UniProtKB/TrEMBL annotation:
Family affiliation: Belongs to the resistance-nodulation-cell division (RND) (TC 2.A.6) family. MmpL subfamily.
Keyword Transferase set for record: no
Organism: Streptomyces mirabilis
Major site of localization recorded for this protein: membrane
InterPro entries given in the database record: MMPL_dom, Mycobact_MmpL, SSD
UniProt KW Transmembrane helix keyword: yes
Pfam families: MMPL
Region of interest (Disordered), residue spans: 727-776
Biased composition (Basic and acidic residues): 735-776
Chain ranges passing through the membrane: 26-46, 193-222, 242-263, 304-325, 331-356, 393-412, 541-563, 568-587, 607-630, 651-673, 679-699
Annotated membrane topology: Multi-pass membrane protein
Protein location: Cell membrane
Protein name: MMPL family transporter
Keywords recorded for this protein, A-Z: Cell membrane, Membrane, Transmembrane, Transmembrane helix
């Protein structure tokens, strides 16, 4: 920022600073108005979100499912009434009469089609093996929202006791409805947990209650704005209800990260400006504040901008996948990241201008100090730890890498599956119904495969094709065909589990079986096969997109060729513990009793992709914070080792505090009763803590010590490219010595900390700065 007036200390106030500070009251009023409009625009968004989205809309199974829904509604029931006859059998006259009456009544309901039952068809698959339970099946028509409304209307009048029978409501539509309701309730509870705990932690970090409230305000603006964006998107595309959880988690977490970084740097710069140099008169209070804002935006502001872009890039990779479940997280994540950054870079500076030195007001920690002076808060312990790590760099690098790889080994045994009723609590009605069907009914009725046959065919051709299917080794039984015009379908029951390896092989065998007509296979196992193929087909492109754009952004920040490569590799390594824990806990079922979930024995196919994109983005978030401060110091000193020590000294505590706060938010999300949400919240919390406390604190300084000054190398053309287009936090001011912004003193003071184990300098300016920083 080369133009614009100057304040005291020679700090240039460029266009961006003038933009965000010229009319702070107007800026905050406009923000309040826009937030109020977002509340209105985003109201009712949860009711418009879907609970599906795991299928590839272009897959063969999706096509077959829609065709069967259209031509043969009874083949695709989404509503199941579990009829329990008590001590009598389901064939008892009184039970049969009541069941037939309920079946006829359901068939007459508006919005219901394809009604069938054991008592109408006599199909063995619809009768429990003990003879005391049987099923009434139907299809509720319409999209997810319409089907949910129909279920709300019907379920109360069918659920419960009807003469000699007891009815429970289940089926896919009931599972989806119950999942939406549960997620909505859990999200409200998570917010009630996260907000007060986060506020307490922020007060502990900042000391000042005023400063602690600022990050929460930024987070609330980001969350409400994203809800409005999602509400608008529902007019054009499907959006998953699970995206609401990411909105809350990232809205609070990233807003707090960005606000922590900016408020901390502002208070640091304000503390330095509190003691004028002997050659310069003391600036006015407003000049002091504007100068601190200018430096904060030039340094921490750029870091926030780069950080938000790296997180958004990781989340944008999910747009490459066809499943709207993943795309929904991209919509929500990109919106909340950009809104959080915008609020931190526009609204927060405006608030800081109005608050000025009052940002340090209401220091609640004074209540516990009892008059004792504040301890130095310049990060001496982090500086000493960085020095220790770099003295033993090979040991720390090898030990940390091996430890992370070992933690990730369980992921080698991952088994992929589909999301089903077991995502819900064990006591949820739709889960109970499906569990009764799995345990008590023959032939895995929920795992049948349907083969759609299209085109003119004779009865003999149908019979020959059926015989070929029946001869396949994984087939237990073939029913059908049921024909209508030039279309027909066969029901194929696989041996073993509904989505086991045998069932997936059977899908591929069915698709390769020759037929004199067009065929398409659907069913649970077919959906899984198609989902795995869609993920595998696009995963390399998504990984390449994340890697290439991240490499470019980090290069623009640092001007180094090696640092971007290190950042990508170390960030990926930091996620191993998360993936290992996901398999060990949620697939294998360890800690299921403690955490309160039912393990399906597999991991839903899209979850690892989602968790990688989110966790990688957050890891880069912390990586940018650390690297930007290291680069700033290296630009001023040219001392690689000292720059690494200084960077960790100045950001180690901040990154750890931000990670703990974000982990609290994610753990609150992880208290959800829906297993996928629990897995997402707890897994991301673990990844964030491992990244901040292990990778940033131990592995990064060790690796950068081993690479030495070569860390900053770049070939001539790339150096010139960076000089022209690169942006870094450490852009030097063209006028004034280093002492003007206190960096040289910070570096020397940091060295003194290493030698004297934290003794304070003798200058009055040091003590004044330490007192202010102790509150931050």
């Amino acid at each position: 920022m080369s133009g614009g007036p100057r304040t005291g200390h020679g700090v240039r106030v460029g266009g961006w600073t003038r933009f965000v500070t010229a009319r702070p009251r107007l800026s905050l009023f406009v923000a309040l108005l826009l937030t109020a409009l977002a509340v209105v625009a985003g109201s009712g968004v949860a009711d418009r979100l879907g609970s599906g989205g795991w299928q590839d809309p272009t897959a063969e199974s999706t096509y077959a499912t829609k065709a069967l829904e259209r031509e043969f509604p009874a083949s695709q029931p989404n509503l199941l009434l579990l009829v329990d006859s008590g001590r009598a059998t389901v064939d008892a006259p009184s039970v049969a009469a009541e069941a037939k009456r309920l079946t006829a009544r359901l068939a007459a309901e508006r919005g219901v089609t394809g009604v069938g039952s054991y008592w109408a068809s006599g199909a063995p698959a619809l009768k429990a093996k003990d003879g005391h339970e049987a099923l009434i099946a139907a299809r509720i028509t319409g999209d997810e929202k319409t089907a949910s409304e129909t279920l709300d209307r019907l379920a109360p009048s069918y659920r419960g006791t009807h003469g000699p029978v007891e009815i429970r409501v289940g089926g896919p539509v009931a599972v989806q409805h119950e999942m939406q309701t549960t997620i909505r309730e859990d999200l409200t509870r998570a917010e009630m947990i996260a907000l007060p705990v986060t506020l307490v932690l922020l007060v502990m970090v900042f000391g000042s209650a005023i400063a602690a409230l600022l990050p929460l305000g930024v987070g609330i603006v980001a969350i409400l704005g994203t809800n409005a964006v999602l509400r608008g998107l529902t007019e054009f595309t499907d959006v998953s209800v699970f995206a609401m959880n990411l909105t809350t988690a990232l809205g609070l977490g990233l807003a707090i990260d960005y606000a922590l970084f900016i408020v901390r740097r502002f208070r640091e710069e304000l503390a330095k400006g509190a003691v004028p140099s002997p050659s310069s008169p003391a600036p006015s209070s407003r000049e002091d504040v504007i100068g601190a804002i200018a430096t904060t935006l030039r340094t921490a502001g750029r870091t926030v901008l780069f950080s938000s872009l790296t997180v958004a890039v990781s989340l944008a990779a999910m747009l490459l996948f066809p499943q709207y479940f993943l795309r929904s997280f991209a919509y929500a994540g990109i919106a909340v990241v950009l809104l959080a950054a915008a609020a931190a870079l526009v609204l927060l500076p405006a608030a800081l201008v109005l608050l000025g030195h009052r940002v340090n007001s209401l220091d609640l920690r004074r209540l516990f100090r009892r008059g004792r002076p504040a301890a130095s808060a310049d990060g001496a312990a982090w500086g000493r730890m960085a020095a220790l790590v770099m003295r033993r760099a090979p040991v720390f690098a090898v030990a940390t890498t091996v430890g992370l790889i070992v933690l990730g080994l369980p992921f080698l045994g991952v088994k992929f599956g589909t999301a089903d009723d077991r995502q819900l609590p064990s006591g949820a009605e739709s889960h109970v119904v499906q569990q009764h069907i799995r345990d008590g009914f023959p032939g895995s009725p929920g795992g049948a495969l349907e083969v759609l046959a299209e085109g003119p065919a004779t009865e003999a051709q149908y019979t020959a094709y059926k015989d070929r299917i029946a001869a396949l080794p994984e087939v237990l039984r073939v029913d059908g065909p049921l024909a209508q015009g030039d279309s027909a379908y066969f029901t194929v029951l696989p041996k073993g589990e509904a989505v086991g390896d045998g069932a997936q092989r059977l899908v591929r065998e069915l698709r390769s079986t020759q037929a004199p007509f067009d065929t398409a296979v659907t069913g649970t196992a077919a959906v899984l096969v198609d989902s795995k193929h869609a993920i595998a087909d696009r995963l390399p492109w998504a990984a390449a997109f994340i890697a290439i754009v991240t490499l470019l952004l980090v290069f623009l920040l640092t001007g180094s060729v090696l640092i971007p490569i290190q950042a990508v590799l170390l960030n990926a390594l930091s996620l191993t513990a998360m993936f290992g824990a996901v398999v060990w806990v949620f697939q294998d079922g360890h800690l299921s009793g403690l955490l309160g979930f039912t393990s399906p024995g597999s991991i839903e196919t899209t979850l690892p992709v989602l968790m990688f994109c989110v966790a990688f983005g957050l890891s880069m978030d912390y990586g940018v914070f650390l690297l930007s401060r290291i680069k700033e110091e290296y630009d001023h000193t040219g001392d690689h080792r000292e720059a690494v020590r200084f960077g960790l000294q100045r950001t180690g505590g901040l990154i750890t505090a931000a990670a703990v706060i974000l982990a609290v938010v994610m753990v609150a999300i992880g208290t959800s009763r829906v297993t996928n949400t629990k897995m997402l919240g707890l897994g991301i919390a673990l990844a964030v803590l491992m990244d901040a406390m292990v990778v940033r604190s131990l592995l990064v300084p060790a690796v950068m010590r081993l690479t030495g000054r070569a860390t900053w190398w770049a070939p001539g053309p790339l150096r010139r490219f960076h000089d022209r287009f690169g942006l870094s936090e450490g852009e030097a001011e063209p006028d004034g010595p280093r002492q003007a912004d206190g960096r040289e003193h910070d570096r020397e003071h940091g060295r003194e900390d290493d030698r004297e184990h934290g003794k304070e300098g003798g200058r009055e300016g040091d003590r004044e700065r330490d007192k202010v920083e102790a509150r931050g």
